[in-house]
Write a structure and sequence with these properties.
452 residues; alpha/beta; Spore Coat Polysaccharide Biosynthesis Protein SpsA, Chain A; nine-stranded mixed beta sheet; two-stranded antiparallel ribbon; elongated
Length: 452
C-alpha cells in the first residue's frame, strides 16, 4: 500500500513541536518558580519596609507633641530609627535602582553588583560629653526653646538628629521644646524630619515640626530674600509666642554642623555673663569674593579689590580674648547658632525679625539692605539689652570637613573652663561698618548704629 505523501513529515513536525512546547512550558514554569522563590526567600528588612512606607507618604506634613513628663525613653525605638536615619539615602537609591532595572536585570538582581555595592555611611562629627558639673549647673536654669529652619539639608540631618537627641538626654526632655520649619526641599529632608519626629516621640521631647516640601517655594526674588527669611524665623517661633513665660532661652540653629557640648558651653557662658544674646564662633570668615560669587552680582560690575574699613589692631582686648577663647562683647553677631533670652520676644521688647527701615529704594518694604539676624541685635540695643557676646570656644560650620578641621585645630578646646566675666559696655558704638546685604559687590559703608 502506498503511504500518503506528507503524513510522515507531519508526524515528525508534530513531535518536534510537542517537544518544543514541553521545553518552553518547563522553562516558563521554572522562571515562575524562580520568581516565587526570590520573593519568598528574600526577606524585606525593617530598613526596606520603613523607607517604602516613607516613600508612600506626601512630601509635606505637620506634626506636634506636648511630650510626656517622666516618661522613660524608648531606647529600642530610638536605636532602630537612628539606623534608618544613617541608611536612608543608601536604601532610597537601592530601591530606585531596583525599580528602574529591566526585567532580566531584576531576575538576576540577587547576583548583581548593585546588591553587593558598598553602602556609604553618613558622616557626622564625633562629639564629647560635657563635664557633669556643667550639666548640673545648666539644669538649674529654665527651659530652652530650639528653633530650626531648614532647606535642602539632607546631608545635615543625621548630625542634627543626633545632637538634638543628645541635648534631650543630657538636659532632660521636659526642659526642651524643638520647633522646626522646612520648605522648598527637593532632597530627602522631609523624610528625615518624619524620622526626627519618631525619635523625639520616643525620647519624650515636646516638638512642633512643619515640613512644606515643594508646596512652599523660596520666593526670595526681587528684593524679598530678607523679608522671606524674617517671615520663616518668625513662623518657627509661633509655639513660643503662645507660651510666654515658659522658656528662659531661645536657641536658633541654622543648617550648620555642631556638637551638643558646644551648645552646653554657649548656654553656660550666656548664663554666667548674664548676656541677652550669645553666639558661637563661625569660621573661616567669608572673604568678600566668596560672597560676590555666591550672591551673583550683575555681569557688568567690574570686580576690584575693595578697601578694608575695619582695622585689625593686634593689641585689642577683644582680639586677645578671641585668641584665648574667652567670651567678648560685640555689637551684632549670629554665626549659625545663637542663644537669645526668651524674655526679649515678650513685651515690652517683643522682638521680631524684620527688614531694614532705611532703604530709600525699598518698595512695599521689600529690601535686602540688612540681614534679619543683624537687625535683631540692633533692636536689642534699642531696647537697652545690648549684652551680645561671642563664645570663641564653641565652633560651627556649614560644611562637615571645615567643621572637622576647625575642631582639630590647637585653638579648639571643648572643655568648659573658667573665663573672666565680660565687662559690659552699656552704650553701642556711634557707627557700625556693614555691607549692604543686597549688594555684596559694593564697598563697606559706615552707618549710624540705629539707622536701620
Amino acid at each position: 500500500m502506498l503511504s500518503v505523501p506528507g503524513v510522515g513529515a507531519f508526524r515528525s513536525s508534530w513531535r518536534r513541536w510537542r517537544r518544543t512546547y514541553i521545553f518552553a512550558a518547563t522553562a516558563i514554569s521554572t522562571i515562575v518558580a524562580y520568581i516565587l522563590f526570590l520573593s519568598l526567600t528574600t526577606p524585606h528588612t525593617q530598613l526596606e519596609r520603613t523607607v517604602r512606607a516613607l516613600r508612600a507618604l506626601p512630601n509635606h506634613f505637620a506634626s506636634s507633641s506636648v511630650g510626656v513628663r517622666h516618661k522613660r525613653p524608648d531606647a529600642k525605638k530610638i536605636t532602630n530609627t537612628l539606623a534608618v536615619v544613617d541608611n536612608l539615602r543608601y536604601e532610597f537609591d537601592r530601591q530606585d535602582r531596583q525599580h528602574e532595572s529591566n526585567y532580566m536585570k531584576w531576575l538576576t538582581s540577587s547576583f548583581s553588583a548593585a546588591r553587593t555595592a558598598l553602602r556609604v555611611e553618613p558622616l557626622y562629627p564625633s562629639c564629647t560629653r560635657p563635664a557633669a558639673s556643667d550639666l548640673k549647673e545648666l539644669r538649674q536654669t529654665g527651659r530652652v526653646f530650639i528653633a530650626v529652619n531648614l532647606l535642602q539639608n539632607e546631608e545635615l540631618m543625621p548630625t542634627l538628629t543626633r545632637q538634638l537627641l543628645a541635648l534631650s538626654e543630657v538636659l532632660g526632655p521636659e526642659r526642651l521644646f524643638v520647633s522646626v520649619y522646612e520648605n522648598a526641599s527637593m532632597d530627602l529632608t522631609v523624610m528625615h524630619l518624619r524620622l526626627l519626629c519618631k525619635i523625639l516621640d520616643a525620647a519624650g521631647t515636646p516638638y512642633r515640626v512643619i515640613a512644606r516640601g515643594l508646596t512652599e517655594l523660596q520666593q526670595k526674588e526681587g528684593g524679598h530674600r530678607i523679608s522671606r527669611l524674617a517671615h520663616l524665623r518668625n513662623t518657627v517661633l509661633e509655639p513660643l509666642f503662645m507660651t510666654h513665660g515658659k522658656f528662659e532661652t531661645v536657641l536658633f540653629l541654622n543648617d550648620v554642623f555642631f556638637c551638643y557640648g558646644d551648645v552646653i558651653e554657649l548656654l553656660l557662658q550666656k548664663k554666667r555673663n548674664n548676656a541677652t544674646q550669645a553666639t558661637m564662633r563661625g569660621i573661616p570668615f567669608y572673604r568678600q569674593q566668596d560672597l560676590v560669587e555666591f550672591f551673583g552680582p550683575p555681569d557688568d560690575i567690574e570686580q576690584k579689590p575693595r578697601p578694608r574699613i575695619l582695622p585689625e589692631p593686634v593689641d585689642s582686648k577683644d582680639r586677645l580674648a578671641l585668641e584665648r577663647g574667652d567670651p567678648f562683647q560685640v555689637f551684632s553677631c549670629w554665626n549659625g547658632v545663637t542663644a537669645i533670652s526668651a524674655s526679649a520676644f515678650a513685651p515690652p521688647t517683643s522682638l521680631r525679625f524684620r527688614t531694614a527701615h532705611n532703604d530709600p529704594n525699598s518698595k512695599d518694604g521689600a529690601t535686602d539692605k540688612a540681614s534679619e539676624c543683624y537687625l535683631s541685635s540692633v533692636d536689642l540695643w534699642k531696647a537697652g539689652s545690648g549684652r551680645v557676646m561671642v563664645v570663641p570656644r564653641t565652633r560651627v560650620a556649614y560644611y562637615l570637613d571645615v567643621y572637622g578641621a576647625d575642631r582639630a585645630s590647637s585653638a579648639y578646646n571643648s572643655t568648659s573652663m573658667s573665663s573672666p566675666l565680660i565687662k559690659w559696655s552699656p552704650t553701642p558704638p556711634a557707627e557700625v561698618v556693614m555691607h549692604d546685604f543686597g549688594m555684596w559687590f559694593a564697598p563697606e559703608t559706615k552707618e549710624a548704629w540705629d539707622s536701620a
